[in-house]
Structure formats: C-alpha cells, structure tokens
Amino acid sequence: MFLCYKRVRFAHCDPAGIIFYPQYLMLAHEVKEDWLRDGLGYPLERSIDVDRRGLPVVRLEVDFCAPSRHGDELLFQVEVTQLGRTSLDATYTVFCGEELRCRIRAVDVRTDLETGRPTPWEPELRARLEAYLVSADDADEGTPDDSVQDAPAEPEADA
Q: 99, 80, 79: which is closest to 144 by C-alpha?
C-alpha cells in the first residue's frame, strides 16, 4: 500500500468551503504521480518523455462518502487490486482521520505513445507493481491502514 497526504486547498473548494467533487480526481492523479515516483521509483516524466509510455485512465468509479472541507488533511491509500498484461486496477481510499471520505477505483492502461496501443508492462516495473497487489475485498475496507504513521506528511502550507 502506498500512503500519501494531501491538504484540501481553497482552490479545491466550492463557495460552501466543501471540496468540489472533481477535485478528488485531480488529487488522486497527483497521488498517482507521487506513487509512480516515490513508491515505484518510476517517475511519470520518465515514462512519458524517455520511454514514450503513457498510463491513461480508461475507467473510473467514485463513491463520495463524506464531505471534505478547506484545510482538511486527507490520507490517500493506494492499492492495486488487479494487474493485467497491459492494465492495472487501483483503489484510492481517502480518509480524514478515521473517517472515510471517498473511494476511487481506476483502471489505467499502459500505452505506447507512438502507436496509441496498449503495451505490456516491462518485467521490472511489473514486479514493482505486484508489491502493491491486494485482493479487491481488502481494498474495500473502511478504516485507515495501521501503518499510516509511516506515510510522509504533506509540508505545512505557508501562512
């Protein structure tokens, strides 16, 4: 499991001070880039600029469980629930403290940027992804992982 904190910023919120729902997807994409870089040791910029491989989302499913507000610190837990020849199914479970706020299920496909066609995972990258593989039932648990204290905290915002 990859853990990453994100703070709800003013720009994420609607006039009521509640996170505007598409902003969860923007934050999840940021977390995906953090996971690729920090968890897998494979930055997205290397994938795109050097290897000419993309990782577009081809399917999304989102459950909004409770509102998040300006200033909340959200914990994203990333787990791979299925790893195919060219795709991965990932679950992003979002908590604020012990409260489940959102669950995002995404299917991404490894794509050759020159042809636009799916392409298989390289063996070394596939092995790194397998380290995050869990059963779909485990990813649907509604409590934060016990190892959240190991997640790097987001830097404090400037006052």
A: 99
Ordered by start, the domain boundaries in the chain are 2-140
Place of tokens 């190991």: 150
Residues 6+ positions from 155 with CB-CB distance below 8 Å: none
Cβ contact 4:76 at 8 Å? yes
Fold exhibited by the domain 2-140: Thiol Ester Dehydrase; Chain A (3.10.129)
Amino acid identity of residue 143, one-letter, is: T
Beta carbons of 53 and 112 less than 8 angstroms apart: yes
Q: Taking Cα atoms as reference points, which of 137, 67, 128 lies closest to residue 99?
A: 67
pLDDT in 10s for each residue of the chain, 159 residues: 999 999 999 999 999 989 999 999 999 999 999 999 999 999 999 999 999 999 999 999 999 999 999 999 999 999 999 999 999 999 999 999 999 999 999 999 999 999 999 999 999 999 999 999 997 666 566 556 544 444 444 444 443
Q: Are 72 and 5 in contact (CB under 8 A)?
A: no
